[in-house]
Amino acid sequence: MPQQKCWGFVIVVELLAWCYQRWDTAILNADSGDSYIYLLMKRGYYILGTVILVGIALTIVAVFNKQSETNTSPPILVNNFVDLSQIDKISKFRSCQGHTVVPVDESEDKRNMKHYFIVKPEYRGLELVALYAPYDAKVSGIRSSPEQGLEGEIWLDGGSEWQFSLEHIQILETINEGSSLRAGELIGHVPDKGFDVVFAIGASSPKQIDGYTSPFAALDSIFLHMGDNLFSEFLKFGISDRQQLVYSKEYRDENPCLYRNDEGGLNDIDHPEDWVILTGVSP
Where are the beta strands (DSSP E) in 87-172? Predict the structure, then answer.
């Protein structure tokens, strides 16, 4: 990050200033009998020590920069989190379905920046639809608020500030916050007609927007962060490409969603084009 590089520069400058300050002090405090060669040797020790310290400082800065690059790179989804033969349809990213889901900075508004997965009628309410981890991760958060209609919500940390979440699901009792999961490991089941999928960076301070609390600093579509092998499974079910499942920001800005009421509920009934119907059968 630029801020970390700036701090590294400051450290190097401070160390060099310290070196020359110590050299000046050595000159001022030198005995009249000290030879010029002795003073040069003394200066050499200070310079050598400074070079070593500068090297250590630069190494520390490089490590922090490497960690920063790793932490800001979104994880790649490599394993399917659901059997697509059990899914009826998927809502597009930035759809007008459900309710407002946008970042806290409101750089986008009047849209839903997550995906809804709707289960086929024959699988609904029976907990027959299993859900899996899409990559190796630690469980960074679990939440259940039945009074708010939220059966279960789980967040998966793959070593990045960008995290994957499944919501409105029944999570296995053996999984807790801090649990380690491998890609493809069972997480839980769908208890009702569908579930939500979110790919986001958490905000330090949640914000109430259009009647709903947004805990997100940034949001993106999972389909833009899938490995090619994983996305090829969606191609077998009638999906033509990734963009078929994503409205661009420019399109939604020019075609804002309307509200059903004053509480942030989007006028989903008038937007059947927001859904992508899965076709085909599991190979």
Answer: 87-91, 115-119, 130-132, 137-145, 150-157, 162-167, 170-171
